[in-house]
Every structure is written in C-alpha cells, then in structure tokens.
Amino acid sequence: MHSIHAEWQNELIFKIKIFSLQDRGIEIWARPIAPVVRADFSYAIVFLNRRTDGTPSEVSVINRELGLTHQAGYRVEDLYADKDYGILSPDDKITVDVNPSGIQIFVIFCS
After folding, report:
1. Is the distance from CB of 99 to CB of 67 less than 8 angstroms?
2. Measured distance CA(58)–CA(27) in Å, rounded
3. Taking the chain, what is the end-to-end CA distance rounded to the nearest angstrom?
4. How many CA atoms lie within 13 A of 3 on its CB side?
5. 74-97: per-residue pLDDT in tens?
6. Which CATH architecture has domain 4-110?
C-alpha cells in the first residue's frame, strides 16, 4: 500500500498525495461530482506526470487508496480514450500510462 494524504486546495478540488508516486513526479487530483449514492460521491480523477524524460510512467493505484470505498463499486471511464473500464470494486486497481508532462482524466461514477 502507498502512504496517502489528501490535501484540499479549495472546497471543490483536492490533491491526493501518494508519497511513493510523488517521488516519481506523479500527482493525482480529484474532484467530487454527481451522482452521489448513499453519501458516496462520484469523482473526476486526474493523473498528472510532471516528468519530462521522454517515457510514459505507469501508475497503479487501488481504488480504496483514492478514497473510492462505495461497496457496490464504480463505473470507470477514461475521458480522452473514450474507454469504459466497467464496474470496479474498492479493492480493484486502476493502472494507467501517463506521458511526460501529460495527464489522464477519468470519470468514476458510483454504481
């Protein structure tokens, strides 16, 4: 498991600090969005690669580490690739490749 800390930037967006990823130049940002199911938010999640070395970085995180704990799971969609990952549980892992100085944006809906 990663060492994790969520830092609110304002009332609408927060940065998820996963310290082992920060050392690699990776940042994860989240914003709660609708729909809300039984007090569990859906989220827009951004993976940001601050590296400039020319190779994509593979980022793997367990949904629970991102604060995604809705027991019925989440429908995960890659916004740019228009790819639907289906329903993932809190214990499933999201793995993405993020280009240098690039981002990956996911919309994660409570099921």
Report:
1. no
2. 12
3. 25
4. 4
5. 999 998 888 999 999 999 999 999
6. Sandwich (2.60)
